[in-house]
Amino acid sequence: MRAPAILFLLCSIAGAAAVDTCVTCHAALEEGAKGPATLIKGDVHTAHGLSCADCHGGDRTTDDQDASMNRAKGFLGKPARTAIPKFCARCHSNPDIMRQYAPRERVDQFELYQTSVHGKRLASGDGNVATCIDCHSVHDIRAVKDGMSPVHPLHVAETCSRCHSDKEKMAPYGIPTNQFEEYRSSVHWEALAKRGDLSAPSCASCHGNHGAKPPQVESVSAVCGTCHVLFAQLYDRSVHKAVFSGVGGGGGCIVCHSNHGIHQPSTAMLAGPKAVCAGCHDAETSPAKTAVEMGAWLDGLDGALKNSETVLARAEEYGMEVSEAQLRLIDGRENLVKARLAMHSMVSGEMRKPVEAGMAVAAETLKAGQAALREKDIRRWGLAVSVILIAIAILAIRGLIRRIESGPTAMTASGEKTL
Amino acid sequence: MSAKELKTKTFDWFDERLGLREGRDLLDHKVVPVHGGTTWYYFGGITLFLLAVQLGTGILLLLYYRPSVAEAFDSVRFIMTRVEFGWLIRSIHSWSANLLIFAAFVHMFSVVFTHAYRRPRELTWLTGIVLLGLMLGFGFSGYLLPWNQISYFATKVGTDVAASMPFAGPALARFLRGGEDVGAATLTRFFAFHVAVLPMLTFAFVGVHLLLVQKAGMSTPSGISPARLAQMKFFPNFFLRELMVWYGVLAILGTLAAIFPWELGQKADPFSSAPAGIRPEWYFLAQFYTLKLIPSHVWFMEGELLGLLGFGLLAAVWVTLPFWAKGREGETRTKWATGAGVFLVCYLFAFTILGYLK
User: Fold this and answer.
1) Among A11, A58, A186, B358, which is most exposed with the fewest C-beta within 10 angstroms?
2) What kind and span of H or E run contains B297?
3) Is residue A354 within 8 Å of B110, Cβ to Cβ?
């Protein structure tokens, strides 16, 4: 009897000072029930002037516990897990309400969620799947652009991995749990986490967020193509498009590049022991030979450009002015990128043009670098000859001075000897 | 007519019109004192030689240089890469500019430590100081002309310092920049200063300086009677020695230009951020570093203003050295001048080194 009496007293005192009795009373409770009242301080809803009663119902103005949490008067309490999406959708799917707080925010999240694997399973009664609060958190919900939000671009993958890397949790669904581990070894993760490029893709970029589901085989290249536009266009025209669509376990780009663990591509994918082409094409077949030829072209161009860079760098170290050639090398590098792009058409003729243009740039800049190094040598020789001539001139003058001063001396007006 | 008669007649013809004999007599009678400090006499000649190098190479650069924001950098690159020996001319011009200022400083301090500024050479000292100022002006204005990143931002810093001077500072900065910021107007303006205004003033002051040296003769160290010193005829004895020194300086210049060609850098981009560690040329580094050391506010005034007032006071003391470094009877107070000279050399040396290291 003592505890309710103290609680009542605390609520009465708090009620006199503040209007929101939900927060003041829950803040005085023990740890479990106290949590929401503490967390809500950093919540985006609180920042917009909303409070507990706006979601959970009830009367926040009275310090009478029975009155404030009276179900007959609209108190909803804690929603069931399966009811959470609909609970949030009361406002987030209502354009009139959302316009007051976040006019540019979409209001179709609930509709999308219902189409997602998560939404469908929840509807069938599976309470283990993700609902709004599993990704966005609860009571301390932050805006997506807030760096502390679990759905901020930098944290999305980690948030998804909380469930998708949990073997126990994923066991009933029979899906792998290594996606996050693979993703963390990918170029996309490196761009996002190491370089801080927020436009780099994470889980939601390919799978969607509220309407999350794995891309279908026929849509993989379209998903990758949202960023890699030109690559997707060339791939769609290539012979691989039709073939890869029929490959089991995914298709399109991921046949060669994998899905979550996408690594920096290299010519080793075309030829050699790690060649992905060899997975389908025997070494003696024409496509395999074409792949080897394409790899050789790319390696050749890359090597030629690096050689030019080295020679120009050496010339620059000697103080030679080679900035024009260095600027020209950028064109060569662009041609290498174009050649790598053209390779996705799988037509060697399309690759030849940028490779030849790049090789021409490499040859031209190499020539400029070698000329600069030759010029450096000529300058050094010229300097040596000039210094010798100057030394001879100095010695000649010295001889002249000696000859002049070895003659008869004259006396100055002051009687001293002149030199 | 024999060759000797032709030579005599030709000389007489010119002598009647130009007074060549007077010049020859002058050279015949001009002598140079010989003592332990005679070596220092060569630095005036070295400075003059380097000035002539600057004039020659500057004229050659003018044949290709284009003083506009759009073309300046590319025209200098054209000189460095396409024009025959353009790299050599530009590198010599840049290295020679630095050696010239160094030689001018050595010449000035040699004058102080040998007390060559004393009566009746006060005007020679003053014209020399003006010439040093003009050389620094050449350095400051010429630095911007290639229109590269370093020169652009160094000029911004330099003109910002000018703007913090009391009273006329903002107006002076606007005058130098030709507007509120360093831009196209600054480049054309600096070009005009560099190739027209400063050369004209320099010619006039070099002329007066040499005339005054000729009028007063070569100074001898204080405490030694000129009558007791051995002397050397200026022509040909001293002149030939000076010629040897000039050849030596030419070899140094050529070596520096061939082994360390003056770099061009990146074209100026006013919208980019200033390159890291931006600092002025070495001859402004001591002052620049001093200004950096002074707190932003000292008592009731801005730190930069306090620094500039300090430099102004120091410059005034230095310029008037011949007038205060003497006693009531007119005798030279050599210790005062030597002390001031030692202080200034130590300050410039230490702060220039620190400015580079920090």
Assistant:
1) B358
2) strand B297-298
3) no
ipTM: 0.86
CB contact under 8 A, B258 and A397: no
Could you tell me the pLDDT band of residue A41, with boundaries at 50, 70 and 90? confident
- Of the residues A377, A390, A403, A409, the best mutation for testing chain B's interface (the one with the most B CB atoms within 10 Å of its CB) is A390
Closest-CA distance of chain A to residue B86, Å: 11
Nearest CA in chain A to B227: A414
Which residues in B have their CB inside 8 Å of a CB on A? 31, 34, 77, 80-81, 87-88, 226-233, 236-237, 240-241, 243-244, 247-248, 250-251, 254-255, 258-261, 263-264
Minimal-distance CA residue of chain A relative to B249: A390
The rounded distance, in Å, linking the Cα atoms of A219 and A315 is 50
What is the pLDDT at residue B331?
64
Please give the pLDDT value at position A416: 46
Domains of chain B with bracketed CATH: 14-266 (1.20.810.10)
d(CA B206, CA A217): 86
For residue A6, pLDDT beyond 50? no
Percent of chain A at pLDDT above 90? 55
pLDDT at A7: 43
pTM for the whole structure = 0.72
| pLDDT at residue A241, as a whole number | 83
Closest chain A residue to B76, measured at CA: A321
pLDDT tens digits, B189-199: 999 999 999 99
Count A/B contacts: CB-CB distance under 8 Å. 78
Region(s) of chain A under CATH 1.20.140:
286-405
Residues B32 and B44: their CA atoms lie apart, in Å, by 13
d(CA A230, CA A38): 50
Per-residue pLDDT tens over the stretch B37-47: 899 999 999 99
**DSSP string covering B151-210, please?**
HHHHHHHHHHHHHTSTTTHHHHHHHHHTSSSSSHHHHHHHHHIIIIIHHHHHHHHHHHHH
* Cβ <8 Å between B250 and A379: no
Partner B contacted by A398 (CB < 8 A): yes
CA-nearest of A272, A280, A374, A274 to A322 is: A374
Q: How many helices (H) and strands (E) does chain B have?
A: 15, 4
- Do B212 and B124 contact (CB within 8 A), yes or no? yes
Are B60 and B89 in contact by the 8 Å Cβ rule? The answer is yes
Distances (CA, A) of A162 to A131, A155, A184: 13, 11, 14
Contacts of A380 in chain B (CB under 8 A): 258-259
Within 8 A by CB and 6+ apart from B126, the residues are B319, B322
C-alpha pair distances (Å), B228 with each of A409, A412, B225: 17, 11, 5
For A389-401, what is each residue's pLDDT tens digit?
999 999 999 999 9
- Out of A43-47, A114-118, A172-176, A297-301, the most confident range is A297-301
Answer CATH for A286-405 from 1.10.15, 1.10.287, 1.20.140, 3.30.310: 1.20.140
Question: What gap in Å lies between CA A192 and CA A152, rounded to an integer?
Answer: 12
* Confidence check: pLDDT of B222 > 90: no
Residue of B89, B148, B220, B240 to mutate for A, most A C-beta atoms under 10 A? B240
